[in-house]
Recover the amino acids of this structure.
């Protein structure tokens, strides 16, 4: 990664939220981050509507056969360099769905992951910590 | 323009999804439009299918509530509640009264947080983010109560076959009541502000009308049907837990538009607060779980009113510690289909809001479906084969 790219990523990361096949819980907790109690917009974190604008992708849920090609497409559309952060235990290990015929995860089989935030769902504080750790690793 | 010219007007397709800025979950709507007007819609789901009904028979009855909890993160008490009701129906046991009251308390707190969440997202959908921020700020009080009495902000793991897993202690009761007072005050403020706002009224009134006849024809449930004048509510019609023992009223509106659904949700929040308060004040003493010795062969059903409508669980037992078959019917499955009539005739700008008005929950809906997107289609036998192949592969690996 070029130094300019790194510099661009570190400040005010814009995130795009990709729900692969989640139970919605990590998703609402991600939205919770933006609302007044946690308000990560203070640090310049903005949820954007298009992966092309994103510095980081927050992926949630087990990945299934139907959502896999779509998630890959979303990743390809994202401007590189781009962080990929898995939120929730499902992203780390398929969680309870490891015996499911439809789960093709975990994510690191398909995407270059930068950080995982385990928890079902992780607390918003843990998600903030995950993003901070992923950024400080750069 | 004459009728003939209208029908020859070019039809175009506007896709919404599977990844769309307004949607939290992946789902795909194909809007067929003539100019600005939506004339038809196709619904394509399956992006969220994880195979719960397949995994469930591999687990024991004690483990299943934790699995069905993960069907949906927003209604994560209704699925376990319906599931344990089905298991108890099959085993023929009654939970003790205190457990029933605690179940009602958790269930209604969940409804408060879910309805406030919808109101917030509804504001977000019409580009009115102030409403979103407000509603979610006040929802936070309820989540704190959850963290206090169940140990987690979401996924409460409150239910188990025969009762509940955690008791509410005497010290916690006044704290919950205080949090409820706060939540009620703030929700009142929010309700008045939302229902008085000319911008919101302009965007919601007479948009996405679902008539009473359509609501019945499409078997819609929950606030979607109650907004169209169909007063179905499992809590009144087939009382379970402690719903028959505390006073509360149904909320029904006749108009069928998005505003009516919003009103139903906002006013139901107050009914839920009333129920929780009534339950906490009359909380009986005693054990919180009944012991289940065995689950005899047979079948059991359980249903409950989730924030989005009726959740239905069916369990068939062969006398072992695992079910033979577990079937789930989630409310959004019925409600999403009614979108097709609700969006017809509206503008594209209103479509996203109309689609969101049923408070769709795709993760609830998609557990067992043979899906097809041009390439993939699985029948039950194909799924079995896939599963066997996976088992074979696992065995190979373990050798």
């Amino acid at each position: 990664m070029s130094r300019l790219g790194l510099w661009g990523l570190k400040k005010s990361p814009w995130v795009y939220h990709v729900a692969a096949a989640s139970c919605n819980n990590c998703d609402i907790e991600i939205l919770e981050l933006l609302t007044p109690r946690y308000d990560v917009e203070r640090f310049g974190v903005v949820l954007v509507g298009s992966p092309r604008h994103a510095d980081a992708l927050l992926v949630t849920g087990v990945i299934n056969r139907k959502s896999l090609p779509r998630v890959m497409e979303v990743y390809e559309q994202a401007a590189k360099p781009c962080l990929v952060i898995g939120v929730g235990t499902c992203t780390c290990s398929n969680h309870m769905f490891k015996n499911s015929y439809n789960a093709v995860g975990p994510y690191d089989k398909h995407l270059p992951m930068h950080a995982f935030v385990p928890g079902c769902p992780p607390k918003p504080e843990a998600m903030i910590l995950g993003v901070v750790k992923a950024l400080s690793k750069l | 323009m004459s009728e003939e010219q209208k029908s020859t007007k070019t039809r175009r397709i506007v896709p919404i999804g599977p990844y769309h800025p307004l949607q939290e979950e992946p789902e795909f709507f194909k809007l067929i439009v003539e100019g600005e007007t939506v004339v038809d819609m196709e619904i394509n789901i399956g992006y969220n299918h994880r195979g719960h009904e397949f995994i469930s028979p591999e687990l024991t009855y004690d483990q299943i509530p934790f699995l069905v909890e993960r069907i949906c993160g927003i209604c994560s008490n209704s699925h376990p509640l319906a599931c344990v009701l089905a298991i108890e129906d099959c085993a023929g046991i009654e939970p003790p009264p205190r457990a029933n009251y605690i179940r009602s308390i958790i269930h209604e707190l969940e409804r408060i947080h879910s309805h406030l969440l919808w109101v917030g997202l509804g504001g977000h959908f019409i580009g009115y983010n102030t409403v979103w921020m407000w509603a979610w700020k006040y929802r936070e009080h309820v989540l704190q109560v959850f963290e206090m009495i169940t140990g987690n902000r979401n996924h409460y793991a409150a239910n188990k076959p025969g009762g509940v897993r955690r008791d509410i202690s005497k010290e916690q009761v006044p704290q919950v009541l205080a949090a409820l007072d706060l939540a009620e005050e703030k929700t009142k403020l929010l309700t008045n502000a939302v229902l008085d706002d000319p911008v919101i009224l302009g965007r919601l009134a007479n948009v996405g009308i679902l008539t009473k006849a359509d609501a019945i024809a499409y078997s819609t449930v929950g606030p979607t049907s109650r907004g169209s004048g169909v007063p179905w509510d499992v809590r009144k019609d087939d009382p379970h837990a402690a719903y028959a023992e505390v006073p509360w009223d149904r909320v029904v509106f006749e108009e069928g538009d998005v505003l009516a659904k919003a009103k139903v949700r906002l006013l139901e929040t107050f009914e839920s607060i009333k129920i929780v308060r009534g339950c906490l004040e009359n909380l009986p003493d005693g054990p919180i779980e009944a012991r289940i010795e065995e689950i005899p062969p047979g079948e059991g059903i359980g249903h409950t009113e989730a924030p989005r409508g009726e959740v239905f669980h069916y369990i068939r037992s062969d006398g072992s510690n695992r079910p033979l078959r577990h079937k789930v019917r989630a409310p959004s499955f019925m409600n999403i289909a009614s979108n097709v009539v609700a969006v017809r005739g509206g503008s594209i700008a209103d479509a996203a809001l109309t689609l969101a008005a049923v408070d769709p929950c795709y993760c609830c809906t998609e557990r067992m479906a043979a899906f097809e997107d041009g390439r993939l289609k699985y029948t039950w036998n194909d799924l079995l084969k896939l599963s066997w192949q996976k088992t074979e592969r696992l065995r190979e690996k373990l050798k």
The CA atoms of residues 11 and 53 of chain A lie 14 Å apart. Strands of chain A lie at 14-21, 46-47, 56-61, 83-87, 115-117. Chain A has one domain: 3-137. Helices of chain A lie at 3-10, 25-34, 67-77, 89-93, 124-137.
